[in-house]
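Example 3.
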Amino acid sequence: MTEAIPRIPLDEWTRSVVDWMTNADFIFDSIEQVISWILQGLYWGMDLVPALLFIAILTAVTYFFAGRKIGLTAFVFFGLLLIVNLGFWDDMITMLSLILAATILSIVIGVPIGIWMAKNNTVEAIVKPILDFMQTMPAFVYLIPAVAFFGIGMEPGVIASVIFGMPPTIRLTNLGIREVSTEAIEAADAFGSTGTQKLFKVQLPMAKTTIMAGVNQTIMLSLSMVVIASMIGADGLGDIVYTAVGRNDVGSGFEAGLAIVVVAIILDRLTAGFGLRKRKS
Amino acid sequence: MSKIKVENLTKVFGKKPNRALSLLSEDKSKAEILEKTGLTVGVNKASFEVQDGEIFVIMGLSGSGKSTLVRLLNRLIEPTQGSVYLNGNDLATVDQKTLRNIRRKDMSMVFQKFGLFPFRTILSNVEYGLEIQGVEKKQRTEKAMESLKLVGLEGYENKYPDELSGGMQQRVGLARAFANDSDVLLMDEAFSALDPLIRKDMQDELLDLQETMKKTIIFITHDLDEALRIGDRITIMKDGKIVQIGTPEEILTNPADEYVEKFVEDVDRSKVYTASNVMMRPETVQPEREGPRVALQRMRENGISSIFAVKRNRELIGIVDASDVRKLVDEKQDDLTSAIKRDALKVVEMDTPVNDVIELTAETSYPIAVLEDGKLRGIIIRSSILAALSGKEVNLDD
């Protein structure tokens, strides 16, 4: 019975679509160029600061901007020192530039889409299933077209991370804006705000906490992509883990893995701290 | 001069609202239209005028369309049909830019749940209206501080809304509305979220402020006591329709239909009624031309034990007791004057609240005289007060 129906050549179709899209080389080339600049800029900026000064700055930032928590501050300080001690500093900076580049792109693309979704129910109805698709498709699959369009290296890694990591930012921007109380919106309207004034003076500030929760998720998802991205040539801590897996080297795999965990915890607590940061009363 | 004139204002919620309009013109009810078309009638052909400097209360139960109506006035909700004239401009048809300007300069709104921006300080909340108009920082801070002072919130400008009590938050809401210097104030259940004591304070304060500011206030409430307390005129709405418009007294004494009657049944009338509402027509005698015999005869006819003595122009002289008059008759005297007593008599003015009159009734056994410019207009006895408070008609001619 099932043999009677010919197999749908979904793979053929996908292949020909991707093939056809590679014709638009110049677009992908320019995208790649932009990402490359962002990566280099971030790396250059972070590399410029000596490791110990970097640690001192980050520790201070953690203390003053994430709720003056002694425990967390100590963790940041000693965690980063451990990474220096293990000799992973440069790899960590590389990884960090990949994550930050993916995060910046996710915010730049994701927040406007989220705003658009919040303002338009049709857009929401269309975008939501796409987001579901983006998140449930195994992350490895993104590597194939990323390589096809952008070759190997850091840039396709960023692209794959953006596709995989952006949905929470979009979703929570949409949610945050939709959650702003009707009375606040009515008040903004009743006093004669323009649409832009309402967005920037009322909706976005009121949705800030929710949006930051989305950004936090995006960063975490990008981080989970670094090992996967190393399969297509992205450098950094992920690459060390990937190599260790290839060589069955438990020791260095654990070391690099631990360093990633330290970075993950620091990034998570810092962004969560920014999101929740309230004024002093 | 009327500040706001609303004509035939209608709002139908749902898709293709025009289907309901023809049904409305056939006087179909809200329920019938919902059944036939699935459309909800929010406001049904409301027409009224609000005078300059008036507090115009729109009252109704939840679902009566009062909140929709007030939002139609500044077009937070787009009207389906009808006009709202403000200073002669039809708000229902102006373009977005003009509308925005009117919202900025001519109409401010105060919300039930305050509608404050939680991430802004009190000061910058109050400044909001000026900020979006592009008023300079220094100037708007000055104006906002002035407005905060007006509502008694000096010293709180750097706090955040969630650090303030409900009553204080609503003061901020008021200050924000005042800061714009608009003539018209729309207040949507502004005091309903406050507890009763605070609510009363706020009502008093609003009335005090209104004394000097003379804004045109449209006040939405579901609370009749509140409506009667602050309203110059009251509109009662039911199912999107205006049932009655009138002064508090008119609403109480002359309800338009059973719905309004049911509403006013439970009102504490002693707070609303004045002496003029509960007084009866007095029996009088004029000593200038009438003697003891006439007085006695008149008391006997009416079954009363005392009678008021007045001059020809109804100026009150005093009261005479039946027993004293009888004595004069027995002594064959012709002049009433010696029997007239003044000291025991309690007098009130036409607009004395009934609450105060009730206290006086305990201090005297005579009826209480109601005067206007020294002239006797009516009398009040205990039973007429009780009758009035229980909602029975008191008629001067009874």
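Chain B has a mean pLDDT of 87. The first strand of chain B starts at residue 2 and ends at 13.
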